[in-house]
Amino acid sequence: MRHYLVIVTALIVAAGGLLSGAPAHAQSKGEIVVGVQCDRTGATQIVGTVLCPGFHDYIALVNSKGGVEGYKIRALEIDHEYKVPPAVESYERHKKEGAVTIAVYGTPQIYALAQRLTEDRIPGTSPGFGSAAAADGQRYPYIFPIAATYWSQGTAAVDFVKKQLGGSLKGKKIAYIFYDNPAGREPIEVLEDLSAKEGFQLKTFAVPPPGVEMGAQVLDIAQRYRADFVIAHLFGGAPAVSIKELKRVGYPLRKVVSFVWGSAEANIDAAGGFAVAEGYYTMQFAGVGTDYPVLNEIREMYKKEGKPAPKEMDSTVFYNRGVLIAALHVEAIRNALKAKPDGKITGADAKAGFEKISNFTLGGLVPPLKITPADHEGGGLVQIWQVKGGKFVKVTDWYAAYTDVVAKHIKEAAAKK
After folding, report:
1. Is 38 among the domain residues?
2. SS3 label, residue 321
3. pLDDT value for 23
4. Which domain holds residue 215?
5. In 62-132, at which residue ranges do the beta strands (DSSP E only) sit?
């Protein structure tokens, strides 16, 4: 059992005090299981140790209010250490437990599970990661990216760089430094397309796993290639290494924009703090900071239990994403239960529930999301934030870019399938 950390939220809520804020007469009609994959001990634990507690806290909040349409949510978590074989095993365990949705964790993992999810008719989410082609709900009916895919992140990054460089990329040099696995390679075809469209030179720099050595790549970017801007797609411990290395060779961090998994407080702290990372631009698919109604509710829940707010809440980027992911699963289950009040919902019912999500903002934590049977991405919107004066400062509102290019690649991927 070394590979597994099993956390069950709200198994016996009456004994825990999680229902302290609920009406005294509220009684559970039963429970609905959600499978939660996580990495708390592997290569991306810097994410999982914050994101997954956010997921569980939101579920606890929902259960404290009487659950979803009277049904409690049981969030069953298994730590797969960011490894594919344990992820497949965890999926089988979740299926055996009767999970109607699966919060998948990791791009290699969603690739490995895509066929099983489809065959078993259980929806799996991959917000901000995974196969960009899965935005096509017709071709991938049981995969839900639900946030900007790597293709949408790539187009948004190029659009941002274009604006930073004065409105034209013709003749400019852009470096793409990436973690050399399926997730890191995913956006390359879109970046190459935009290179031809906008007339910039693109050079890619692969960083082998686990991403702790990239001195040679950074030196090449800064002193040989002399990039006008760097688009970074690194995760785990790698983003911090890139910040330190770029700083060491004198490359200005105000000319770096990171994809969403190199954009958290934990990444900045690991690089040496906000003073070290001054100027660094980050991409987000959920709000940053502590001032959102849902977070206030979670703090109040803990206060009623006589407990301090968990330390993970301070790392707002990954924690807020965990809350968002849980909320999306809850919203899908809520929609499914409205259609089947007897509570006997299946994965197919939950899929239909995801596809009814509309104008979902979670109190401003995310842009208005709309999921349809055809579009499982929900618009591909992001914000850019910058490390400035010891904190993250918002630079742009929610936006998407080159949506025609993304649509073309989705269409081409469907034709290849």
Report:
1. yes
2. helix
3. 36
4. 150-284+382-416
5. 72-79, 101-103, 124-125
Q: Which conformational region is residue 119 in: left (phi greater than 0), alpha (psi within -120 to 50 degrees), or beta?
A: alpha
76 & 22 share domain: yes
Longest alpha-carbon distance in the chain: 70
Task: Give the whole-angstrom CA distance, residue 290 versus residue 309.
Answer: 12
Whole-number pLDDT of residue 160: 98
Could you give the number of structural domains in the chain? 2
pLDDT at residue number 29: 86
The answer to whether residues 46 and 162 belong to one domain is no
Q: DSSP string of 146-192?
A: -S--HHHHHHHHHHHHHHHTTS--TT-EEEEEEESSHHHHTTHHHHH
DSSP 8-state class, residue 261: G
In a domain, 130, yes or no: yes
CA distance 57 to 78: 16
Write the CATH number for 158.
3.40.50.2300
Does the predicted model carry a pTM greater than 0.90?
A: yes
Query: Residues near 139 by Cβ (< 8 Å), separated by ≥ 6?
Result: 133, 413, 414, 417
Alpha carbons 239 and 201: distance in angstroms, whole number = 23
Residue 37 lies inside a defined structural domain of this protein? yes
Q: By C-alpha distance, which of 238, 245, 247 is closest to 208?
A: 238
Residue 386 pairs in a beta bridge with 281, 393
Q: What would the two tokens of residue 215 be?
A: 């001195």
pLDDT of the residue at 19 = 34
What are the helix (H) ranges across 272-346? 293-304, 316-339
Residue in this structure with the two tokens 């993992």, named with its chain if needed? 109
Cis preceding linkage at 210, omega within 30 = yes
**Is 364 domain-assigned?**
no
Structure tokens at 312: 């993970």
Structure tokens at 201: 């030179």
Q: Is residue 279 located within the same domain as residue 325?
A: no
pLDDT of residue 417: 61
CA gyration radius, the chain: 21
Q: At 233, is the secondary structure helix, strand, or coil?
A: strand
CA 365 – CA 349 distance, rounded (Å): 26
Q: Do 58 and 154 belong together in one domain?
A: no
* Distances 237 to 23, 32, 130, 214, 282 between C-alpha atoms, Å: 45, 35, 19, 12, 16
Averaged pLDDT, groups of 10, the chain, 417 residues long = 41 35 52 98 96 98 97 98 97 98 96 97 97 96 97 98 98 98 95 98 96 96 98 96 97 98 97 97 97 98 97 98 98 97 96 97 94 96 97 97 97 84
Q: Are residues 27 and 78 in the same domain?
A: yes
Q: What is the 8-class DSSP label of residue 311?
A: G
Could you tell me the CA-to-CA distances from 18 to 36, 52, 244, 307 in Å, in that order?
Answer: 20, 18, 43, 12
